[in-house]
Design a protein that fits this description.
This protein has 129 residues and is mostly helical. It has two domains: 74 residues, Multidrug-efflux Transporter Regulator, Chain: A, Domain 2, CATH 1.10.1660; 39 residues, no CATH class. Strands 1-2 form a two-stranded antiparallel sheet. Strand 1 and strand 2 form a beta hairpin. The protein is elongated, with a radius of gyration of 21 Å.
């Protein structure tokens, strides 16, 4: 019979913050608890899975790669796993950064670039309309 763990027990056993465990559940890397709510229950399988995730991260793998590895590469499970995407970073001001997906069409990229230049001008010039 499996021993049930609370989230706090699970976090302490694997050395990860509870917040990280919840993040892994939200991203589909880890199954949710057997029982939800205040009495949430986790098993040794959850602990084993977390240890495996930690080991794969120690090898330098990204979470998207880990998800594919853990799910055995099946198409159904891969659709739940986060896919890596490239992004362009545009620094507009010291405290403002705009991120744009790198796979945008050239036409869309031109539109975005024009909008960022306009926005940058407004921030630097203090144009209040």
């Amino acid at each position: 019979m499996d021993v049930y763990l609370t989230l706090a027990d699970l976090a302490q056993s694997c050395g990860l913050p509870a917040r990280t465990i919840r993040f892994y559940i939200a991203r589909g890397l880890l199954d949710g608890p057997l029982k939800a709510g205040r009495g949430a229950a986790y098993t040794s399988e959850h602990l084993d899975r977390l240890e495996r995730i930690k080991a794969l991260q120690a090898e330098g793998r990204m979470l998207s790669e880990i998800a594919r590895t853990l799910h055995g590469g099946t198409e159904h499970e891969l659709s739940r796993a986060p896919q890596p995407t490239a992004w362009w970073q545009h620094v507009v001001a010291e405290d403002v950064v705009v991120w744009v997906r790198a796979d945008a069409s050239p036409w869309r990229a031109k539109q975005v670039r024009a909008a960022i230049e306009d926005f940058t001008g407004r921030l630097q010039g203090g144009n209040d309309k």
